[in-house]
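To fix ideas, we close by showing one paired sequence and structure record:
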Amino acid sequence: MSLTPSNGKPTLAAIARLTGVSTPTVSKVVNGREDVAAETRAKVLAALEEAGYQSPGQRRTASGTGVVDVVFDSINSNYASTVLSGILDYASEAGVEVLLSVTGGLPAARLDVGRRAQRMLDEGRAGMIVVTSSLTDAHLASFRRRRIPVVVIDPLNPPPADVISVGATNWSGGRAAAEHLLDLGHRRIAYLGGPESAECNQARLHGYMSALMSRGVQVLPDLVIHGKFRTEHGVEGLTKLLSLPEQERPSAIFAGNDAIAVGVLREARRRGIRVPEDLSLVGFDGTALAEDSVPALTSVTQPLHDMGRAALRTVLRQSRGEQIDSHRVELATQLVVRESTAPRPGIRAGG
């Protein structure tokens, strides 16, 4: 049975006859509707792929429409603005438009993802970049069912295996931060991290732990405190560390991001604690916060601008039907030493 009429384009009716389902059911699958049994969906999708069928939205994308959705929780941070600058930079080079939206931290249940995905398909958008914790695996499935390319940047939790993510070498960055402090003679090194379950936080923590254990330094539970990647966690974390008996307090802190480190600096200044004379401090991200803080912050720099560029480049490659070699893209981090770290009081570096 031929799936294509004389104009060479397969019809939904022909797909329906081949698969033994109704034409409306085939239409539902094409449009990513939820109310189709998984077995039926798989059978129809296989027939559509074999026939080379493209929806009207997919045909518009292939013909050159270039609009990419980018979704953030918020853009009111140095992290977000730097990632966005990379996306916009590459968009200018590639001649595509970026449609930016912000979830504002809305609960997942209040995000009408199905409608958004269908609109993207109908309008022939090239794909979507996700820089938010609000979209769950179930949400991402709405886009995958419609064959809309999605790339997640620095996800808090591992995305589904078939969703491409872009991030940095968090483990090696965490290890480099801790090794720097160890080289300066510090042995009581605290870790003030982000959400305990977050993938990037776990990688940074494990890098820190690896560095300590390789030098025979015990990882002390009282010196590991998880929270949010926010300035207030730095304030609260330092307050908690200073509540320990004096001999148990850290001489150095590795903060899970620059915002946390700035909170530590703020509270240390309020309490008359000098950085780095009394307390050494390392951040993570390498944002403008690190360069502009007083003292300037030693930080593990993530290539945030390049991560934004890589995410958009990958979405556009997917939209053109190109094969992506890896579902996880990691760009290298680099420790940048500034003014917030010094040898532990009373000893020389490396002692």
User: Anything to note?
Assistant: The mean pLDDT is 85.
